[in-house]
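Example 110.
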Amino acid sequence: MITKNNINDDINPKIIDSMKQFAESYAKSTNTYFCCDIEVTESVILGLSKNKQTFGAPLCPCRYYDNKVDEISLAYWNCPCVPMRERKECHCMLFLTPTNEFSSTRQTFN
Ligand code: SF4
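Predicted structure in complex with iron/sulfur cluster:
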């Protein structure tokens, strides 16, 4: 059985740290906030980190793709994806606008 912990063990901690740093700085620059449920935020970070490690790009982990390599080359769903960049729409709930009912007041992991 795959648990969050052993997924975590497979990912280089430096990649996880860099994705966290990206998320903190991007949240601040876009005036968005992390989810009130920190487990949501952490699982998205792990998914992004896993794709970054495996494919070299932080492909959005909350979607199904027939071919991740092809999808990465299109760049549409590389985080921050086009819907987020254009309309602040993050369906993974990593970046939430202040008025979102699930938004916290946190933009950092500490
Ligand atoms: Fe990143 Fe977009 Fe996925 Fe949100 S929906 S985690 S901004 S790729």
